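ligand=guanosine-5'-triphosphate
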Amino acid sequence: MSLFSKMPRRNKGNLSNVSKPQLSPRPFLEQESLTTLQGRPTQTITMTDGDYDYLIKLLALGDSGVGKTTFLYRYTDNKFNPKFITTVGIDFREKRVVYNTQGPNGSTGKAFKVHLQLWDTAGQERFRSLTTAFFRDAMGFLLMFDLTSQQSFLNVRNWMSQLQANAYCENPDIVLIGNKADLPDQREVNERQARDLADKYSIPYFETSAATGQNVEKAVETLLDLIMKRMEQCVEKTQVPDTVNGGSSGKLDGDKPAEKKCAC
Ligand code: GTP
Ligand code: MG
Protein backbone atom coordinates (compact mmCIF):
# COMPACT_ATOMS: atom_id res chain seq x y z
CA MET A 1 0.00 0.00 0.00
CA SER A 2 1.28 3.43 -0.83
CA LEU A 3 2.36 5.41 2.21
CA PHE A 4 2.74 8.49 0.17
CA SER A 5 -0.29 9.72 -1.62
CA LYS A 6 -2.63 12.61 -2.07
CA MET A 7 -5.96 12.34 -0.31
CA PRO A 8 -8.99 14.58 -0.04
CA ARG A 9 -9.12 16.90 2.93
CA ARG A 10 -11.33 16.08 5.85
CA ASN A 11 -11.80 17.84 9.16
CA LYS A 12 -10.92 16.39 12.52
CA GLY A 13 -12.91 13.20 12.97
CA ASN A 14 -13.33 10.24 15.24
CA LEU A 15 -12.80 6.88 13.67
CA SER A 16 -13.24 4.64 16.66
CA ASN A 17 -15.52 2.32 14.75
CA VAL A 18 -13.34 1.60 11.77
CA SER A 19 -10.80 -1.16 11.66
CA LYS A 20 -8.62 0.29 8.90
CA PRO A 21 -7.51 3.85 8.11
CA GLN A 22 -10.25 5.14 5.90
CA LEU A 23 -11.15 8.66 4.85
CA SER A 24 -14.08 9.62 2.74
CA PRO A 25 -14.06 12.73 0.55
CA ARG A 26 -15.70 15.88 1.82
CA PRO A 27 -16.13 19.11 -0.08
CA PHE A 28 -13.50 21.63 0.86
CA LEU A 29 -14.78 25.16 0.77
CA GLU A 30 -12.78 27.08 3.31
CA GLN A 31 -9.59 28.99 2.89
CA GLU A 32 -6.79 27.72 5.00
CA SER A 33 -3.88 29.42 6.66
CA LEU A 34 -0.50 27.94 5.90
CA THR A 35 2.31 28.09 8.39
CA THR A 36 5.96 27.53 7.73
CA LEU A 37 7.77 24.55 9.18
CA GLN A 38 9.21 26.81 11.83
CA GLY A 39 5.61 27.46 12.83
CA ARG A 40 5.70 31.17 12.14
CA PRO A 41 2.54 32.20 10.31
CA THR A 42 4.52 34.14 7.75
CA GLN A 43 2.21 33.55 4.87
CA THR A 44 -1.43 32.84 4.22
CA ILE A 45 -2.13 30.98 1.04
CA THR A 46 -5.53 30.23 -0.36
CA MET A 47 -5.83 26.51 -0.99
CA THR A 48 -8.52 24.36 -2.40
CA ASP A 49 -8.99 20.66 -1.85
CA GLY A 50 -5.99 18.69 -2.95
CA ASP A 51 -3.85 21.78 -3.29
CA TYR A 52 -0.79 20.36 -1.61
CA ASP A 53 2.29 18.49 -2.70
CA TYR A 54 2.52 15.78 -0.08
CA LEU A 55 0.26 14.03 2.37
CA ILE A 56 2.20 12.93 5.43
CA LYS A 57 0.64 10.70 8.07
CA LEU A 58 2.01 10.94 11.59
CA LEU A 59 0.79 8.97 14.57
CA ALA A 60 0.98 9.76 18.29
CA LEU A 61 1.29 6.85 20.70
CA GLY A 62 2.05 6.27 24.36
CA ASP A 63 0.28 5.47 27.63
CA SER A 64 -3.14 6.84 28.45
CA GLY A 65 -2.94 10.29 30.03
CA VAL A 66 0.54 11.26 28.79
CA GLY A 67 -1.04 14.07 26.77
CA LYS A 68 -1.22 12.86 23.14
CA THR A 69 -4.59 14.46 22.38
CA THR A 70 -3.68 17.67 24.18
CA PHE A 71 -0.31 17.84 22.43
CA LEU A 72 -1.90 17.48 18.98
CA TYR A 73 -4.56 20.05 19.86
CA ARG A 74 -1.81 22.47 20.86
CA TYR A 75 -0.01 21.79 17.59
CA THR A 76 -3.00 22.23 15.28
CA ASP A 77 -5.02 24.88 17.15
CA ASN A 78 -2.46 26.39 19.52
CA LYS A 79 -4.80 25.82 22.45
CA PHE A 80 -4.61 23.89 25.70
CA ASN A 81 -7.39 21.73 27.05
CA PRO A 82 -6.94 21.01 30.80
CA LYS A 83 -9.74 18.42 30.81
CA PHE A 84 -8.89 14.73 30.49
CA ILE A 85 -11.24 13.10 28.03
CA THR A 86 -9.69 9.76 27.20
CA THR A 87 -9.54 8.93 23.48
CA VAL A 88 -11.78 6.10 22.37
CA GLY A 89 -10.15 4.12 19.60
CA ILE A 90 -8.56 6.53 17.19
CA ASP A 91 -8.98 10.13 16.15
CA PHE A 92 -7.16 12.54 13.89
CA ARG A 93 -6.37 16.18 13.32
CA GLU A 94 -4.94 17.97 10.31
CA LYS A 95 -2.65 20.85 9.54
CA ARG A 96 -0.85 22.23 6.53
CA VAL A 97 2.71 23.47 6.61
CA VAL A 98 5.35 24.53 4.15
CA TYR A 99 8.45 22.37 4.06
CA ASN A 100 11.57 24.01 2.70
CA THR A 101 14.26 21.75 1.33
CA GLN A 102 17.87 22.80 1.66
CA GLY A 103 19.63 24.05 -1.39
CA PRO A 104 23.39 24.05 -1.97
CA ASN A 105 25.58 25.69 0.71
CA GLY A 106 22.73 25.86 3.22
CA SER A 107 20.54 28.03 0.99
CA THR A 108 16.79 27.50 0.90
CA GLY A 109 15.76 25.03 -1.76
CA LYS A 110 12.27 24.19 -2.94
CA ALA A 111 9.15 24.87 -0.86
CA PHE A 112 6.55 22.12 -0.67
CA LYS A 113 3.03 22.36 0.67
CA VAL A 114 2.57 19.48 3.08
CA HIS A 115 -0.76 18.26 4.36
CA LEU A 116 -0.18 16.68 7.77
CA GLN A 117 -2.59 14.07 8.99
CA LEU A 118 -2.01 13.54 12.70
CA TRP A 119 -3.42 10.29 14.03
CA ASP A 120 -4.23 10.28 17.73
CA THR A 121 -4.41 6.81 19.26
CA ALA A 122 -6.00 5.71 22.51
CA GLY A 123 -3.40 4.78 25.10
CA GLN A 124 -5.71 2.40 26.94
CA GLU A 125 -4.85 -1.26 26.67
CA ARG A 126 -8.37 -2.26 25.59
CA PHE A 127 -7.89 -0.46 22.26
CA ARG A 128 -4.46 -1.90 21.56
CA SER A 129 -5.35 -4.22 18.67
CA LEU A 130 -7.25 -1.43 16.94
CA THR A 131 -4.56 1.21 17.38
CA THR A 132 -1.61 -0.99 16.40
CA ALA A 133 -3.44 -1.75 13.14
CA PHE A 134 -2.98 1.92 12.29
CA PHE A 135 0.79 1.85 12.82
CA ARG A 136 1.34 0.27 9.41
CA ASP A 137 0.01 3.27 7.52
CA ALA A 138 1.82 5.98 9.44
CA MET A 139 5.03 7.46 8.09
CA GLY A 140 6.37 8.78 11.40
CA PHE A 141 5.66 8.43 15.10
CA LEU A 142 5.42 10.77 18.07
CA LEU A 143 6.22 8.39 20.92
CA MET A 144 5.13 10.14 24.08
CA PHE A 145 5.53 9.64 27.79
CA ASP A 146 4.67 11.82 30.78
CA LEU A 147 7.60 13.40 32.62
CA THR A 148 5.55 13.19 35.82
CA SER A 149 5.00 9.42 35.46
CA GLN A 150 7.94 7.01 35.74
CA GLN A 151 5.65 4.18 34.65
CA SER A 152 4.79 5.88 31.36
CA PHE A 153 8.53 6.22 30.73
CA LEU A 154 9.20 2.56 31.54
CA ASN A 155 6.47 1.64 29.07
CA VAL A 156 8.29 3.41 26.22
CA ARG A 157 10.22 0.17 25.67
CA ASN A 158 6.97 -1.73 25.16
CA TRP A 159 5.72 0.89 22.73
CA MET A 160 8.97 0.60 20.81
CA SER A 161 8.48 -3.16 20.49
CA GLN A 162 4.93 -2.58 19.27
CA LEU A 163 6.26 -0.15 16.71
CA GLN A 164 8.98 -2.46 15.51
CA ALA A 165 6.41 -5.22 15.06
CA ASN A 166 3.67 -3.19 13.41
CA ALA A 167 5.13 -0.15 11.64
CA TYR A 168 6.07 -0.03 7.95
CA CYS A 169 9.58 -1.20 8.84
CA GLU A 170 11.64 -2.16 11.87
CA ASN A 171 13.37 1.19 11.92
CA PRO A 172 10.67 3.80 11.35
CA ASP A 173 11.07 7.53 11.92
CA ILE A 174 10.29 8.28 15.56
CA VAL A 175 10.65 11.22 17.90
CA LEU A 176 10.61 10.55 21.64
CA ILE A 177 8.65 13.13 23.62
CA GLY A 178 8.64 13.72 27.37
CA ASN A 179 5.50 15.79 27.88
CA LYS A 180 4.27 17.95 30.81
CA ALA A 181 7.60 19.78 31.19
CA ASP A 182 5.66 22.62 32.80
CA LEU A 183 5.23 20.55 35.97
CA PRO A 184 8.80 20.46 37.40
CA ASP A 185 7.62 19.82 40.98
CA GLN A 186 5.93 16.59 39.90
CA ARG A 187 8.71 15.37 37.64
CA GLU A 188 9.61 11.68 38.00
CA VAL A 189 11.83 11.24 34.93
CA ASN A 190 15.04 13.20 34.63
CA GLU A 191 16.30 14.48 31.32
CA ARG A 192 19.49 12.38 31.37
CA GLN A 193 17.53 9.14 31.72
CA ALA A 194 15.28 10.04 28.82
CA ARG A 195 18.12 11.21 26.59
CA ASP A 196 20.03 7.98 27.25
CA LEU A 197 17.03 5.96 26.13
CA ALA A 198 16.57 8.08 23.02
CA ASP A 199 20.28 7.70 22.22
CA LYS A 200 19.97 3.95 22.64
CA TYR A 201 17.30 3.94 19.94
CA SER A 202 19.11 6.66 17.93
CA ILE A 203 16.06 8.89 17.88
CA PRO A 204 15.66 12.59 18.76
CA TYR A 205 14.27 13.54 22.17
CA PHE A 206 12.24 16.59 23.17
CA GLU A 207 10.77 17.77 26.44
CA THR A 208 7.47 19.42 25.64
CA SER A 209 4.53 21.05 27.28
CA ALA A 210 1.13 21.07 25.70
CA ALA A 211 0.18 23.57 28.40
CA THR A 212 2.74 26.22 27.41
CA GLY A 213 3.50 25.04 23.88
CA GLN A 214 7.19 24.46 24.69
CA ASN A 215 8.89 22.45 21.92
CA VAL A 216 5.59 21.20 20.49
CA GLU A 217 6.18 22.51 16.98
CA LYS A 218 9.85 21.65 17.14
CA ALA A 219 9.12 17.99 17.89
CA VAL A 220 6.70 17.68 14.96
CA GLU A 221 8.98 19.61 12.61
CA THR A 222 11.90 17.33 13.49
CA LEU A 223 9.81 14.26 12.70
CA LEU A 224 8.63 15.74 9.41
CA ASP A 225 12.20 16.58 8.51
CA LEU A 226 13.30 12.98 9.15
CA ILE A 227 10.48 11.69 6.95
CA MET A 228 11.18 14.10 4.10
CA LYS A 229 14.88 13.27 4.21
CA ARG A 230 14.19 9.55 4.17
CA MET A 231 11.92 10.01 1.17
CA GLU A 232 14.54 12.05 -0.57
CA GLN A 233 17.03 9.22 -0.05
CA CYS A 234 14.53 6.73 -1.45
CA VAL A 235 13.90 8.89 -4.50
CA GLU A 236 17.62 9.25 -5.01
CA LYS A 237 18.07 5.48 -4.81
CA THR A 238 15.26 4.73 -7.21
CA GLN A 239 16.47 7.38 -9.63
CA VAL A 240 20.10 6.30 -9.82
CA PRO A 241 19.74 4.78 -13.34
CA ASP A 242 18.07 8.00 -14.54
CA THR A 243 20.82 10.10 -13.08
CA VAL A 244 23.46 7.93 -14.68
CA ASN A 245 21.74 8.44 -18.01
CA GLY A 246 21.56 12.17 -17.53
CA GLY A 247 18.08 12.09 -16.00
CA SER A 248 16.65 14.01 -13.06
CA SER A 249 18.65 15.06 -10.03
CA GLY A 250 16.82 12.70 -7.67
CA LYS A 251 15.63 15.52 -5.40
CA LEU A 252 12.12 15.56 -4.00
CA ASP A 253 9.81 16.54 -6.79
CA GLY A 254 6.36 17.74 -5.87
CA ASP A 255 5.07 17.02 -9.37
CA LYS A 256 5.81 13.33 -9.04
CA PRO A 257 4.68 11.98 -5.67
CA ALA A 258 7.08 9.28 -4.61
CA GLU A 259 6.27 6.06 -2.86
CA LYS A 260 7.77 5.96 0.62
CA LYS A 261 9.75 2.79 0.97
CA CYS A 262 11.65 1.64 3.98
CA ALA A 263 15.26 2.67 3.75
CA CYS A 264 16.35 0.63 6.75
P1 GTP B 1 -5.56 8.82 26.13
O1 GTP B 1 -6.46 9.44 25.14
O2 GTP B 1 -6.31 8.14 27.24
O3 GTP B 1 -4.55 7.88 25.53
O4 GTP B 1 -4.73 10.00 26.87
P2 GTP B 1 -3.88 11.15 26.18
O5 GTP B 1 -2.47 10.72 26.09
O6 GTP B 1 -4.52 11.59 24.93
O7 GTP B 1 -3.96 12.31 27.29
P3 GTP B 1 -4.68 13.72 27.16
O8 GTP B 1 -4.13 14.52 26.05
O9 GTP B 1 -6.13 13.53 27.20
O10 GTP B 1 -4.15 14.43 28.50
C1 GTP B 1 -4.38 13.88 29.79
C2 GTP B 1 -4.40 15.01 30.80
O11 GTP B 1 -3.11 15.60 30.89
C3 GTP B 1 -5.36 16.14 30.46
O12 GTP B 1 -5.97 16.59 31.64
C4 GTP B 1 -4.45 17.22 29.89
O13 GTP B 1 -4.96 18.51 30.08
C5 GTP B 1 -3.19 17.01 30.68
N1 GTP B 1 -1.99 17.44 29.95
C6 GTP B 1 -1.62 17.05 28.72
N2 GTP B 1 -0.47 17.64 28.36
C7 GTP B 1 -0.12 18.42 29.41
C8 GTP B 1 1.00 19.28 29.66
O14 GTP B 1 1.92 19.44 28.85
N3 GTP B 1 1.02 19.91 30.87
C9 GTP B 1 0.05 19.76 31.79
N4 GTP B 1 0.17 20.42 32.93
N5 GTP B 1 -1.01 18.95 31.59
C10 GTP B 1 -1.08 18.29 30.42
MG1 MG C 1 -6.21 11.03 23.95
